Amino acid sequence: MSNIDFDDGLKKLEEIVERLDRGELTLEESLSIFEEGIKLTRTLTRHIEEAEKKIEILTSSENGHITLDGFDADDSGS
Question: pTM to 2 decimals?
């Protein structure tokens, strides 16, 4: 499951949530699909963490040189 594309994984997770919300599954089916959702959530979280590591902000220094500064999630404005 770790090779799943982020967008596809997110869509699959939404489908899992919808199936669980309908309440039409047996207890065993619900537990199985819930476990799949947890695994998928962990995979998607890793995708996000990898993306955050890759984000770099280009800034121009006082002397006009461009420098790369690492992305700080605390400074993201959220």
Answer: 0.67
